[in-house]
């Protein structure tokens, strides 16, 4: 009898994980449908285009957000945070699937070039470095607000309010790193659907930062 709650929670986590796979596949399908309608009217982005760089970098960025969100969803007891983490995981899984498909439809590889290099000509969004001296992937991930391996391990080991607060700190920083990327694409890009997604991402993640900041205050988080 004592194992029943744990088994039930494990089963729910499996259901959510499967749902994320399906949502990613849905995003892939939506991307295919969308691309059929837009690419005939506009030139296809090239491998060094802002759209391609954004798609590649944001897929990596979203993958970590999904990992962090699923970690806190699995163990938090806070209903508001649990709902938010679910929303983050599912929405970013769908966006990640769509961005993957953009590159497929454009006939471009899923990887290519240093991270964030495509942002170099966007005003106010260089994140340090220069076009002649691109950042390393580690520096780029830090500039993008991504959590380090040690931070992820600490979140995995944490429990209770400590875990909740760590997640909020990491995810606020994570979102703060994504918004300049979306703004850079809005400045540099031209593909209609990519611009639409970037605008939605900027608006949605700004609202989520506000929500998470409010949660930090409610929970008494120190950072």
Task: List the topology elements.
Elements: H1 4-38, H2 50-75, H3 79-105, H4 137-143, H5 149-157, H6 160-188, H7 192-219
In short:
The protein contains seven helices and no strands. The protein has 223 residues and is an all-alpha fold.
General description of the model:
It is built from 7 helices and no strands. Helix 2 runs antiparallel to helix 3 and helix 6 packs antiparallel against helix 7. With 223 residues, the chain is mainly alpha-helical. About 5% of the residues have low confidence. 72% of the residues lie in helices and 0% in strands.
Q: Which terms summarize this structure?
A:
single chain; 223 residues; mainly alpha; 7 helices
Q: Would you identify the regions where 5 or more consecutive residues have pLDDT less than 50?
A: 35-41, 127-131
Radius of gyration using CA atoms only: 18 Å
User: Number of helix segments?
Assistant: 7
Compute the number of strand runs: 0
Shape: elongated
